[in-house]
Amino acid sequence: MGRRRRAVRVVGSVVVVLLLGAGGYVAADAYDVVPGRLTLEPPAPTPVPFPTAPAVVAAPAPQVAVDQLDPEAPMPSPEAVGALANALVGDPRMGSSTAVVVADVLTGQVLADIDGSVLQTPASTTKLLTAFAAITALGPDRTLVTRVVQSEPGRIVLVGGGDMMLALGAGDPELVNGRAGLADLAGETAANLLQAGTTTVALGLDDTLFTGPAWNPGWHPAHNLYVAPIAALAVDRGATSPDPFQPRQADPALEAAKAFAALLTAQGITVTGPTRMAADPAAVEIAAVESAPMREIIRYTIRESDNTVAEVLGRLVALQRGQPASFAGATAAVVAEVGALRGVDTTGTTIADCSGLADGSRIPARLMVDLLVTASSPGSIDLLPVVVDLPISGWQGTLFERFVDGPARGLVRAKTGSLPNVTSLAGTLLTADGRLLAFAVLADATPGGGQEQPRAAIDAFVGQLAAGTSG
Predict the structure, then answer these.
(1) What distance in Å separates the CA atoms of residue 188 and residue 190, rounded to the nearest whole number?
(2) Is 23 helix (H, G, I), strand (E, B) or coil?
(3) DSSP code of residue 94
(4) 53-62 residues labelled b (16+ CB within 10 A) or e (exposed)
(5) Model pTM above 0.70
(6) Peptide bond between residue 407 and the one before it cis (omega within 30 degrees of 0)
(7) Coil, strand or helix: which one is 37?
(8) Which of the two residues, 15 and 379, has the higher pLDDT score?
């Protein structure tokens, strides 16, 4: 390559010599070989004038917009929808106690109502109420802060702010479960301690944000596979293993504090404790990490049907409404928050917990549909995220393996519910005719043998609705 470039320079030199010999410097100038004013190149075009920037004006404020539903889309036939609902209720796979409600979202017209006002065991569809209450009471942008405070040299307190989804290591901005990292908190804490010349501390744990029992009296011991004792902080929702069906920690907050102490030790800090105590309100914050925003936490809860996080959301709603952050305060606050919504009647509704796991919850199917219709209306932008973030059929969360074939695939957003002899599904679907429907199916006396048969019956019903039943 080097020899080739030298050859080019030699040839260029020869050309210059020849031109100078034949016609002197004028010819060389014309051929642009030597500097000069002469050239054989065509003249350059006249440059376009530099554009003048228009006067600066303020950009309009961003507006949240929702596509309008098409009022011309064919309305499903109430007779056809009613016939499908009756066939579902009579299906032996559903057992002896099934409520079905279907309504048109645009108009609110009820297309089918079979025992819609009867109180039913809802199972995890209870999380719909919890999610709506959380988005209205807490807002979509709020985060949960886990802090370390210091009231005097050598004494620090780890203060739980409700985040039970801390990562043991570094936080990951792409995750919801693991957005805030305990290792990050320990790193910041150690750096500030060492900068102040502190190498030995007594560690306290303040998990007093929540009150009352951590374990719901309506939960069975075997439920420890599906929910942890509720605490003001925890690593990975109190999990003891990556396997989601392993028992949860008996004391998630204390285990998180022990892990934090170990992380501090690895940073060169000698730690005694942790010991439970209330932090001094005047203590100085020396480190903090933040959870994902509430919109993402709610989405995670309803897509994954996470019982632990649902219970945390209920307690946060209770605090926002001035209620005790206990099971009793949370359930009362959630029902009250939902009952304050326009067009929603919670008469007779009672919930024993905020996840649907405990015995004793009773919710009418009509309430579920009223909530979904209200949240999907143009005047309810604050509620719409819950509907939009529900699992999508054949694609996400608890609907990943349902509706994978047929007309309902990708067109259903719904919350599932499963307990022994209880199967439920509530959400919205878009029909083949372009009509958006809200529906709820609650069955709380299904035959033994598990969820497969009642789910198949419900999925067939929803698929028939999605295929279109216009008259």
Answers:
(1) 6
(2) helix
(3) G
(4) eeeeeeeeee
(5) yes
(6) no
(7) coil
(8) 379
Number of neighbouring beta carbons within 10 Å of residue 43 = 6
**pLDDT confidence of residue 16:** 32
* Number of other CB atoms surrounding residue 377 within 10 Å: 18
What residue ranges define each of the domains in the chain, with the CATH number in brackets?
11-40 (no CATH), 78-139+342-467 (3.40.710.10), 145-292 (3.50.80.20)
Q: Cα torsion for 434, 74, 425, 124, to the nearest 10°?
A: 70
Question: Which candidate, 317, 305, 332, places its Cα nearest to that of 227?
Answer: 305
Catalytic residues: 124, 127, 305
Q: State the Rg of the chain over Cα.
A: 33
- The SS3 assignment for 101 reads strand
Provide the mean pLDDT of the chain: 88
Burial 427-457 (b: 16+ CB within 10 A, else e): bbbbbeeebbbbbbbbbbebeeeebebbbeb
Please give the average per-residue pLDDT across 169-185, as a whole number. 98
User: In the structure encoding, which two tokens stand for residue 195, read together?
Assistant: 């900068």
Choice among 225-234, 294-303, 398-407, 452-461 with the minimum mean pLDDT: 398-407
Give SS3 for 460: helix
Please give the residue that has the higher pLDDT: either 288 or 45: 288
Q: Name the packing angle between helices 452-467 and 78-90 (round to 10°).
A: 170
- CA gap 404, 407 in Å, rounded: 9
> Residue 55 is encoded by which pair of tokens?
């006067």
The token duo for 439 is 């529906």
